[in-house]
User: Fold this.
Amino acid sequence: VQLQASGGGLVQAGGSLRLSCAASGRISSNYNMAWFRQAPGKEREFVVGISWSGGSTSFADSAKGRFTISRDNAKKTVYLQMTSLKPEDTADYYCAAGLAGVVESTQNEYLYWGQGTQVTVSS
Assistant:
């Protein structure tokens, strides 16, 4: 299973970005998906997750009201729409896949990881 994240870039504070994560290989749609991020000098942290059906989501407090997660199982792709971006959102963003069930926020619940895509928010 491979996860390919894309869509990062440089944006001004208040702007928006949409990240994508495309899955390939032997992966069915029965995986929860999540986005984590790691800022320079900080530990990786959970941002948002979505159940395999898309019917359940979980957000970190920092993402509530600003970020939206969605998925297209036919395309094996999950999206992270980020709005009202702040400089503190600057980080490498990673997508991850875990087994279906409760949408977890802990890293060890996720089996597969993509490479990071860098998001930089300027003030």
Summary: DSSP finds no helices and eleven strands in the chain. The mean pLDDT is 95. The CA atoms of residues 17 and 63 lie 13 Å apart.
